[in-house]
Amino acid sequence: MESGLYVVATPIGNLEDISRRALATLGAVDMIAAEDTRHSQRLLQHYAIDTPLMAYHDHSDDRAVAKILATLARGGSVALVSDAGTPLVSDPGYRLVRAVQDQGHPVHPLPGPCAAIAALSAAGLPTDRFLFEGFLPAREGARNNRLARLAREPATLVFYEAPHRLTESLAAMVECLGPQREAVLARELSKAFETVKRDSLEGLHQLVQADSNQRRGEIVLLVAGWRESGQEFSEELAALLRRLARELPAKTAAAVVAEWSGVRKKVLYDYLLAHRES
Ligand code: SAM
Predict the structure, then answer these.
(1) Which of 10, 58, 219, 222 maximizes ligand 1 atoms within 8 Å of its Cβ, making it the mutation to test the pocket?
(2) Measured CA distances, 215 to 6, 110, 177, 193 (Å)
């Protein structure tokens, strides 16, 4: 086969979701660089592939990159795989791909499974424009800042989410993006407990609070992009208003925000009545 680095997408759940070309490539290369060799070994065993494996991570020491470059320099070929899906999508490979290109070797992508794309394809949200945000920052302040910056982004937003952070992240999204914004919880795609649920952010938040099964497994969260809603004030102001209304009577919260922002008190009060449950 032609010398070069082959970036090979592997299944995100169902082992049948691998292409014939991916299997042929994994069987033909001189070496497979894997995020976790034990994890990838299971896939290779399933398909009776016995190509040697080596560990590669973006913070591997330079010896891993040097070993791969030496193989390519001899005219050999190397495949890069991650634990699941497409390498470099919230997964290692970026440093390696650049190093290989910088040495003048070809890099060939072998397209295949990717949780973000699978989720988008079944979400029922606009896909003409989407913004892949990967994992939100774990710390509350950084996460809320990121969400506040996304509040007026018109593209569909795609997040990867860890089960233990799901409830917290949905609560933050309700606060920063608005309770009525449409969103999709896509869990365990291509696996036994696959679930795709579309609802408002508030509805999804209530769902995951009420049913711990909805917080299990691997999760993609998608949120519809910002649309002009006819609301006479910004989502940031709405978030402030909702937050104040948790501490003060609705009339007082509306009056404080009206004085501060110049928006009519009645408009703010009506908004609070309409969003009373949240
Ligand atoms: N490279 C992978 C890809 O192409 O999707 C993503 C790797 S990232 C480290 C792992 C995250 O992807 C999980 O935490 C989850 O958010 C998402 N994910 C992976 N497999 C999934 C699945 N079967 N269903 C839903 N989300 C999945």
Answers:
(1) 219
(2) 35, 32, 21, 12
pTM of the model: 0.86
Helix axes 265-274, 250-261, angle to 10 degrees: 140
pLDDT, the chain, mean = 94
Report which ligand 1 atom has the smallest distance to the Cα of 191.
Answer: 23
Phi, psi for 84 (deg, rounded to 5): -160, 140
CATH class of 116-223: alpha beta
The CATH classification number of 4-113 equals 3.40.1010.10
Quick check: CB of 64 below 6 Å from ligand 1? no
The ligand 1 atom nearest the CA atom of 82: 1
273: pLDDT confidence band, cut at 50, 70 and 90?
confident
Which residue among 88, 90, 97, 193 is best mutated to probe the pocket of ligand 1, counting the most ligand atoms within 8 A of its Cβ?
90
For 14-58, the pLDDT digits (tens) are 999 999 999 999 999 999 999 999 999 999 999 999 999 999 998
Tell me what the mean pLDDT of segment 146-159 comes to: 93
